[in-house]
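Issue 218. Parser rejects a valid record. Input:
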Amino acid sequence: MKQLRSLVVCEGCDAVYRRPTLHAREVAHCLRCGTELARHPGAQQQRMLPLTVACLILFAIANLFPIVEIKLQGLASQTTLAGAVVALGGEGMSLVAMLVLATTLLFPLMQLAILFYLLVPLNRGRRPRGFPMLVRLLQSLRPWGMVEVFLLGVLVAIVKLSGMATVVAGPALWAFVGLTVMLTVVVSFDPRTLWDLAFETPAAAA
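Output the parser choked on:
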């Protein structure tokens, strides 16, 4: 096992190399095709868990508080993300409602929950159960989290409605702004860092 861990296989051309020893900010590339072989993780291992926890807090705020409040002719209306999904379903747009629910709530929450589940024991020197399957699931969920697309749609809607009514940004909107930035950082992690951490720690007892 140790001999295998000392080797790295190029994802582009399957060339096999000895795992290089890298210093801060160094990146190793394949001599044959130029594909990235390894990258020094820097402080990624230390900052991933705090960022994940911060994302979970922002995610809770973004989904529990109103996104916007609309005031028109003395009447005020406000809604949360869940309320918007229910309203879409009530208007006969069930498919759109399901897409919004999946891409802005379910998939991002699954990503953050899996990362939290993996990082807590890894930072304590233990390998969590189901590690290989969860890392693969995490990778497959990456393209489906679309919080930034939802945020862009909300901002466009606010600009259009501002000419007809008074639109007040709610706490959830600001939380979505912060979540979009932080989630981009969190989900862009190098999964090889998780594998390196996992092989350095013993597996959890069955």
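Fixed in the parser; the record now loads. DSSP finds eight helices and seven strands in the chain.
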